[in-house]
Amino acid sequence: MRPLFIYGDPMPSKIILKNISQLILENHPLAPLTTWRIGGTAARLAAPADLEDVWKLMRLAQERGWPLFFLGRGSNVLIDDAGLPGLTLHLAKSLQNLTRHGDTLRAGAGVPLPRLAQAAVRLGFSGFEFLAGIPGTVGAAVRLNVGAEGQTLAGVLKRVWVATPQLQLLELTPPELGLGYRTSLLLNFPHWLVVEAEFNLAHPAGPEAIRDRMAALIAQRKTRQPANPRSCGSVFKNPPGGPAAGRLIEAAGFKGRRLGDAVVSRKHANFILNHGHATAAQVKALMADIQAKVWQTQGVALEREVVWLPEDLA
Fold first, then answer.
1. 182 catalytic, yes or no?
2. Strands 87-90 and 68-71: what pairing?
């Protein structure tokens, strides 16, 4: 883990505000920015255009004592009904650089994973196809070491750059990140922001063959997962060495179980769908019921995969 630099010297807040005040929106609805379409408002929301904006916004939050939150495309996250205090950086349209450097592909944290997969296809390199059906961003994918079809991001990742609240830029390699099943060192440092990642281009292949495999993987996912887009993806992690979480939840009799407008999918029990106006409180209560029943009937403690905000950044 190498600090590359510390951003700037202290400058008066009034200068920072002059430069970035136009980026900050107050009391902005967050539900439309998530795939679940659930959550309250952000006290303050900003969409940084580049790393310079990120530094200024992080510094401003530090000076004002505002809690700082990061939001990408809003999958794999449940935002509380009361919303988020402090400052939320919305990165879905930020940090979008995507360039080839020799045998690597470098991507900004806000790059959608399907776009990363398509870039690898155009360059004629395989190994990224599994990302095509995952709705998240590069930054969130690194933090959780996302995976599908037996592959994870760790298999193609070379290094990442992370901005810290101390205004340092750190460079970390996969061993330093401690990548595991849906986990990384970054989960222990929720206020560190992945700003860029570099991926290995190690397996040349014909673009048509890669596209065919990608299409097959996407089609396969559609047969197993619900068509309703109002979900966060998988709610619980698959327990090690045992049946998948979806199988355990189904065996506990929860397929189709409903609490308000939060409904367990009948197609895949590890998906909770928003069938209207579900609230975070309803989803949390349904998750708690599932965990209690699976533990009671099968002796397995399900661990959630979805991130709760603001709780998980406390």
1. yes
2. parallel
